[in-house]
Amino acid sequence: MSIYLVTGGAGFIGSHLAAELTRRGDRVRVVDNLSTGKRQNLAAAPGAELVEGDLADVDVARRAVAGVDYVLHQAAIPSVPRSVQDPITSNRSNIDATLSVLVAARDAGVKRLVYAGSSSAYGDTPTLPKHEDMATSPLSPYALQKLVGEQYGRMFTRLYGFETVTIRYFNVFGPRQDPSSPYSGVISLFISALVEGRSPTIFGDGEQTRDFTYVANVVDGVLRACHAPRVAGETINVATGGRISLNDLFATLKALTGGAGDPIYAEARAGDVKHSQADISKAHRLLGYEPIVSFEEGLKRTLDWHQSSERAPAAS
Ligand code: UD1
After folding, report:
1. 142 is catalytic
2. Mean pLDDT over the full length of the chain
């Protein structure tokens, strides 16, 4: 039985990783400062131990990694507009904390660290789908910070021989994605507006596209990256390989929810990327990864969660 540390494990993606690991019978420790994470998200991961603290403090990071085999580093402030508004706070969470975790994990003899990278690193390059060999072009502090985190990881592999792998996420959605902040992921915002009879806002003309990825696919990709051979130092996209516009997303959700009303259009967000779609052939080659839950099925499961009783305490 291995021991896994999930940083940010009380958050959306982290709690899904913790849940799957406990389901498989592994031991899980979560470290979270509960700034956006929620204690009740860990109800999905019975037996997971919670360490509360801020990972930018290297002593917290050292306590968290003690005795751990694998680190899944998910802790971050995952928002483009929030980083545009307050780059210093997001820098601390996204870069300082990452460096602390890398140093602590290296010193503690952790076998491998899998880092939550972001598709935002690609920026507005015209080539679609986006593949890992492309030049990066971060358009926001968030995108730059996530890219620095992955470069730090790669450097730790080269410099110290400490195994790290970056999985670049593309617009992940699913149950427990919190819709209560204006910085929340767009699918959670659209669903909560439609279910509550409000009009969602579409920033820009709504023709921007995203490779929306149901969270179970990311969990599968990350756990494969923990154990796959010959991936240390690699950056790998994990997504579905498709893309859908915000206008089509809204129409699909409107039909699924039976919601009435139309969206309100507002000015495009600063730092927003126009199109995003992943080439997932490297994930297939190195990890044997294939999406296991389609976009449509993922939307249905997410909608079920929004309408279920589990959602009620999370929203309070
Ligand atoms: C970006 C990153 C993604 C990262 C995520 C974290 C890209 C391509 N992706 O996602 O890797 O994990 O940040 O937050 O950069 N929108 C609306 N109405 C709303 C909210 C959003 O129209 O109420 C639009 C946004 O302007 C954007 C799209 O929906 O065009 C998606 O927004 P969001 O869910 O916030 O994620 P990204 O910024 O794409």
Report:
1. yes
2. 95
